[in-house]
Amino acid sequence: MHRLNASARRLAARRVAGRWPPWWVACLVLAGVTAAAAEIEEARQFYQSGRYAETVALAEKEFHEQPYSEKWSLLLAQGLWTVGRYAEARAVVTNMLGQESRSIRLRWLAREVFASNGEPEKAGPMLREIIEWVSQWPSAYRDPADVVVYGRALLAAGVEPRLVLDRVFEAIKKADPDERNSYLAIGELALEKHDFALAAKSFQEGLGKLPADADLHYGLARAYAPSEPALMLASLETALKHNSNHVGALLLLTEHAIDAESYGEAEKSLDHVRTINPWHPEAWAYAAVLAQLQNQPDRERTAWEQALRFWRTNPRVPHLIGRKLSLKYRFSEGAAQQRQALQFDPRYLPAKEQLAQDLLRLGEDDEGWRLAEEVRQQDAYNVTALNLVTLRDTMARFGTMTNRHFVVRMTPREQRLYGPQALALLEQARDRLGAKYGLEVKSPVHVEVFPEQKDFAVRTFGMPENHGYLGVCFGRVVTANSPAARPGRPFNWQAMLWHEFCHVVTLQLTHNKMPRWLSEGLSVYEERQANPAWGEQLSPAYRGMILGGELTPVARLSAAFLAPASARHLQFAYYQSSLVVEFLVERFGLERLTAILRDLGQGSDINAAITKHTAPMPEFERDFQAYARRTAHQLGPGLDWDKPPADALPAGNDGSAWEVWAKAHPTNFWVLTQQGQRLIEAKQWTEAKPVLQRLVDLYPHSVGADGAWSMLASAHRALGETNEERRALGRWAEQDDAATGAYLRLMELGNAAGDWQAVVQNARRYLAVNPLVPVPYRFLAHAARQLNDTRAAIESGRALLELDPPNPAEVHFQLAQQLRRAGDTEARRHLLLALEEAPRYRNALQLLLELERERISTAARSAARGGSEP
């Protein structure tokens, strides 16, 4: 193609000399132009497919032949910059600028090239020239790629993003639907503003036009990254299929591997990047992160120096390092990196935004909120900053409870209902877990409880997306959902707080240097130690996963939390992690576990620490696998756990195959469960009892609303067998920490039988799940009065009044009675409130008269002793 271009030029010269007819010259020149266009397009395809060396070689050749060609100079500079030949890229850019080129695309690229060469101050003039020239000569810049560059320049200059999106990017997309840069620009703007749904939409639209575009697939992966790791990985795989050298995709894979604690895989991705660009600053920044996470200070210093080799004040480097350290819960180190980034460039808003979140997670609220406000004022379209500032205003209405060890913040109403119980539980956890692990917990610990899930998510992640967490611990700050945040999805808030406070202990003990699997496994394990009904329990599903070969190797267990195949697999990761801790403690002792934690705090690798204090990792892995399988086999050992074959499932046409299979497997778990369910649904209570009794005899842990104990209780109730019903419900309740249906029925039965202790026990169980409804308080207040527990009766009565009871006069009266017994002068006020609701309430009037007589009598005695007027 190059020869044809040269030939075309020679033919044009002959035309001037009169050697060729004019029409021949026109045809050959046109052929040369067409060939040149095809050649530049081929070179661009080289670049987009990752053939960077070939791109540079071809562009250099053509650039020397056509030194004034904007297209070739742009491609050459882009290629040189991509492979880390920064000085050469600068020379090309400077040469073209010196020729008074009016290319705005050149100036946009020059900004990045100058910065990479440590000259960020030269970016400002490039930006001004782009905006001024397009404003003065708009007709000269109608090419779609130029228009997109103009839009990006406007954004960089601080023009309102919505205006640029609507009037520039969307307009060019509508005018030229095949222009890839418009989809990229819209998606990148949405990513910058944390609008991941809009970003995904734009990249998907672009892929509809250009399905083989690696940049668009990479953009889609970034849009999925915060909430859909499996989709992110699929998009990265596709991007690398079309461009195996896509640096952005390789770095995002690196980030994912770091999150999964697969540090070897992260190193491989970085090695690949460095074969493309040995000086890529972000690659070296990730290398610095890896070095710090692996306690390799010399490597960390080397990586830091290499990352800043060409641009000594590049704020992106410390910002990236700090962001990743914060994602590893090393917020102090992360905050220090963000301060360094802001020292390099005080206007670098990503660092200020991240620093605000780091400080809030460290409990340094005043500065954190101030920085969030500054970011919002400087960028009105920063969604995270806006969310944080809005949350700050919401939290200003929260109530606060404090003591020497805790600062607990929640809404005033929830504080009055269960705040003291939450504070007492946290104190109990502090005493027990601190002593167990030999740690004096640094105080105060901040605990914030949110009645709106979106507020919890903003406080925790900066965005309102639901990540499925109940609570999160950052070390000295705990954020939690209140029971109000998850209507219809009950959970035990006491177990959740215990779980999170265990994180406080272990994170402080290890200085936040522990793998996720161990952190979560310890907290779930300690839940079960505190209450056998708390925490993840071995279930038929987990049994099948263990025996079916779905255990994750311990060395890779943290990765199981990142991209689980399903919600069940995520919960199984929590259970398996707790089982590893249980195995470690039973086999080697708590002292060895604590020694491992202390080694982690000194920077040790988890596998090295396990090997040092227990056994070599291959042996540890082998023995744990055996332990897990033994544990699984202990679940219902007398049951047949074989799954029915597909052709014998009860959904068959006539059910005959199922009946035959069931008869041949009389102790099969699935058979007994199916038979029990069918008989209950058919209200064949008598026939259901022996089936369900056999099932609970063989598998006593069958809990849940559809478990065997629940069905057996239903059968007993229908048959009027109250004592048997109570027994079945009791077995269910003692094993299930969120069985509100069982707790409520047990309260009713205990109340009818005058078993006040049972009423109190189940009312408190219910309140550990939902303290925001009146029913358990009514039962608790009544039982407390019967047991002469004045304090509990007063607390329950006050809680009932918070919940707007249908009979407030009666509640006020009963509360007044208990307050009178306690000698509390508040009794009179509650009597007056009862009479305000029901002026003819005779018992209240009578008690008021008694109080008045007592007051007059007391005053008279006081006057007689002191000689004053009554």
Structure, described:
The chain has 870 residues and is mostly helical. Among the domains are: 47 residues; 69 residues, Serine Threonine Protein Phosphatase 5, Tetratricopeptide repeat, CATH 1.25.40; 227 residues, Neutral Protease, domain 2; 65 residues, no CATH class. 69% of the residues lie in helices and 3% in strands. A 5-stranded mixed beta sheet has the order 1-2-3-5-4. A hairpin with a 3-residue loop joins strand 1 and strand 2. The N terminus is likely disordered.
* Beta-strand content bin: under 5%
Number of strands: 5
CATH architecture of the domain at 406-632: Orthogonal Bundle
What is the 3D shape?
globular
CATH class of the domain at 406-632, named Mainly Alpha
Count, helices: 43
Q: What class would the helix/strand composition place it in?
A: mainly alpha
Can you give the helix content as a percent range? 55-70%
Task: Detail the poorly predicted runs.
Answer: 1-33
Over the alpha carbons, how many angstroms does the gyration radius reach? 35 Å
Q: Give the N-to-C terminal Cα separation.
A: 116 Å
Give the overall average pLDDT: 91
Major sheet: arrangement of strands: 1-2-3-5-4
- CATH fold-type name of the domain at 406-632: Neutral Protease, domain 2
**Biggest pleated sheet:** 5 strands, mixed
Question: Briefly, what is this?
Answer:
By secondary structure, this protein is an all-alpha fold.
